[in-house]
Amino acid sequence: MLHSTLAIWLDAARPKTLPLAVTSILSGSAVAASQGSLSWSISIMALITALCLQILSNLANDYGDAIKGTDNTTRLGPMRAIQSGKVSLTTMRRALVFNTGLTLLSGSALIAIACQQPTDIISFLLLGLMSIVAAITYTVGNKPYGYRGLGDLSVLMFFGWLGVAGTFYLQVGHIDSLVILPATACGLLAVGVLNINNLRDIDNDRASGKHTLVVRLGPHRGRQYHVILLAGAIICYALFAALTLQAWLGWLFLASVPLLVRHGREVYQAASATALRPMMGNMVRCALVTNGLFMTGMLLV
Question: pLDDT over 70 for what percent of the chain?
Fold first, then answer.
């Protein structure tokens, strides 16, 4: 029974999406390490906090989409916990409260370790509370922003700018404007994962009143948008390397370009939403490989 319960909640946490939270923190730490300011304690607590936030968002999405009827028999994605009947709405609400508590606890510990100045403490407390609210209200509430086409911007902010640049700031103690480039690259790749999800579910989302950016763009322009996301990530990494690095190792991320090109071509040429189902895992791998190569280069230069 215990094993079965753990398996249900592990599946509800959507472990395949969690590497995106991990890479945003590790990318920021890698850039900090390249400047001789790596703190393992800050990196670990930032990583735990990011994972708690990601799981909170995933559970809230399960709850919100179930309440609004978006998770139904016509949806092409994997069946979620409430939709399958394995978890009740009441139990999921309790899980959301519990996970919110864990996130507040880990976030407070991160701030205690990393912040000394009152302005930093207040700023990151506000950012942390904003992140929790954003994780929940993506699909929960009367006007969830994920149903209004703002999910892409949210992912870019939290998996890119806040995750990477925020981690860098906590370790180095100041912000370098050029860090926005790798932060944007990491965020764009995370948006690519969301975009595949939304392209796959475009018909069901439209019918359910979930007006994602892809629903607004349409399937063809949504595929074009996906290619732009991939190209934008490489351009941002290339600009950062050109402006800050001298050693060739800082360009290791270019080894992922063939993988990104192949993936982009497959998405662009996909004949139907059903054909996009296996490409979610491919996009996650593209993001992990590209970010991983970038981080490796940062640690070796």
Answer: 98
